[in-house]
Amino acid sequence: MPVISQIWHTLLVTPIFNLLMVLYKYSGSLGFSIIILTIIIRAILIPLVLPSLKNMKKQRDLQPELDKIKQKYKYDKKKQAEMQMELFKKHGLNPASGCLSQVWMIVILIALYNVINTFAIGVTTQHINDLLYFGFLKLDLKETVNTTFFYLNLAKPDPFYILAVLSGIFQFFSSKMMAPYVEAGESAALKTKDKSDDIAYNMQEQMLYLMPLMTVIIGLKLPAGAVLYILVTTIFSLVQQYFVSGWGGLTPWIKKIAVYGKKAR
């Protein structure tokens, strides 16, 4: 095994595998073990994710100043972009600050894929035991890990694509919530000759639809266990974002639902 691969497995894949097997040992369900594992991982990553969430809230608080810049330089795209970046720099903001948390999510996803793939490729029980740190986790040589979870085989792709679609839907809600500037910036950007002059608007507009689409496409091919991780981590992100800055970009939708609810009564 190459040195880089050994380091990757030693520092990330094997520890995650062992933690998953600990959870499986006591829950008896690989699916529930993945859900609990995901929550644990997301909790550990809170110190890394929280600063980017607070950064997005600061950007929303700067909305009035950003609107003034768009109005003042609505016919000068270059100057408007420069002033937006200057305002972000002044307040220590980076429109791409959320990338770090996304990178960690992808890294963990790849590691978890390696873990799930251990069951998918049909390795022997002895090989599984060789990866375990503690004797009490080791399986009887006649025993196998049950990868069934409801209608799913967690070691294979979801045959009905339900997990992938749900992941994409929740990712859209998450992106909408985390990018309130898309909703607020649209009316102001439309007043300019070209919406491409609004850096933050365009970045967030693209991410709003690109991330959910990528999530669905990736989820169609991944083992269901890995997609289950994506779904749970996305829901966790939604809840986390709500407690940091409320409904964000979902606020107009929530208000409409509340209005319709009152009318229905």
Write structural notes for this entry.
- Belongs to the OXA1/ALB3/YidC family.
- This is Membrane insertase YidC/Oxa/ALB C-terminal domain-containing protein.
- The chain has a two-stranded antiparallel sheet with strand order 1-2.
- It contains 12 helices and 2 strands.
- The protein has 265 residues and is mainly α.
- It is elongated.
- It has one domain.
**Largest beta-sheet characterization:** 2 strands, antiparallel
Query: What is the end-to-end distance?
Result: 66 Å
**How many helices?**
12
Largest sheet: spatial strand order: 1-2
Secondary structural class: mainly alpha
Brief rundown of the structure:
This protein has 265 residues and is mostly helical. It has helices spanning 3-27, 30-44, 46-61, 63-72, 77-90, 99-120, 125-131, 162-178, 180-190, 199-221, 224-245, 251-264; strands spanning 148-149, 152-153. It has a two-stranded antiparallel ribbon with strand order 1-2.
What is the secondary structure topology, with strand pairs?
Elements: H1 3-27, H2 30-44, H3 46-61, H4 63-72, H5 77-90, H6 99-120, H7 125-131, E1 148-149, E2 152-153, H8 162-178, H9 180-190, H10 199-221, H11 224-245, H12 251-264
Antiparallel strand pairs: 1-2
Helix pairs in contact: 1-2, 1-6, 2-11, 4-5, 4-9, 6-11, 8-10, 8-11, 9-10
